[in-house]
Amino acid sequence: MSKDAPYTVTVYVAAPGTPLAGGGTSAAGHMYLSVERGEWSRSYGFAPIKHGATSGPGAITDRDSRDYQNPYYARTLEITKEQFDRIVEYGKDPAKHGFSMEYAGLSNSCIDFTWGALNHAGLHRQTKSGQDLGFEGAIKPLDNKREIESIPDPIPGSKLNTEINNDLPKRSLLQRLISENDSYEGMIQNEQAQSQQREVSARQMG
């Protein structure tokens, strides 16, 4: 790898219904990022250890950039070595930098993790009042697209600063509701309540 190889980060937003490399589709959508330098790259995301859970212990995922096929939106930014290193250190051990590894669909999800990594590297969303240093993201993945677009280019004019927009994937009725319905928060809360009730019932039966 050349000493002069540039550093980049790509931030991804996958919609509900996004095809997965191993088969099936994403139930609720996803947000994640990857860093690249030459042929070296690492993908970082956050998800519950128990697949499909809306809460519980979480873990860093390193296959998202391979698993999610043609995500709805991706923005690549050329960044500095310092920003690159800070994203990598956050991705390796987010708990060390104040991120809880307990997954919660509404308050500590893949979205919070991704914005945590970006904020740690000094890549903040821009508002009318200036940079939002502590932004944790919108609840629905798709609602973060505009916020990602607002991040100022760390290296203005770089040819590596690019955006990719894909059509929304085919979605089930539920996936459409998750994408478009403002009552998404209530849907998640209801799903969490149902999950907790199932666990209680299972313990009582046991």
Rounded radius of gyration (Å): 18 Å
Please describe the biggest sheet, giving its number of strands, its sense, and whether it closes into a barrel: 7 strands, antiparallel
The helix content, as a percent range, equals 25-40%
* Overall mean confidence score, pLDDT: 88
Count of helical stretches: 6
Sequence of strands across the biggest β-sheet? 6-4-3-2-1-5-9
Q: Total strand count, please?
A: 9
Percent strand equals 25-35%
Shape assignment? globular
- Helix- and strand-based class? alpha+beta
- Listing every helix as H and every strand as E from the N terminus to the C terminus, the arrangement reads EEEEHEHEHEEHEHH
Instruction: Report how far apart the termini are.
Output: 57 Å
Low-confidence stretches: 183-206
Q: Would you give an account of this structure?
A:
- It is a single chain.
- This protein has 206 residues and is of the alpha+beta class.
- The chain contains six helices and nine strands, in the order ββββαβαβαββαβαα.
- It has a seven-stranded antiparallel beta sheet. Strands 7-8 form a two-stranded antiparallel sheet.
- Strand 3 and strand 4 (55-61) form a beta hairpin.
- Helix 2 packs antiparallel against helix 3.
In short:
The protein has 206 residues and is an alpha+beta fold. The protein has helices spanning 64-67, 81-92, 110-120, 145-149, 173-180, 184-205; strands at 7-14, 30-37, 40-48, 55-61, 73-79, 102-104, 125-127, 130-132, 162-165. Strands 6-4-3-2-1-5-9 form a seven-stranded antiparallel beta sheet. A two-stranded antiparallel sheet has the order 7-8.
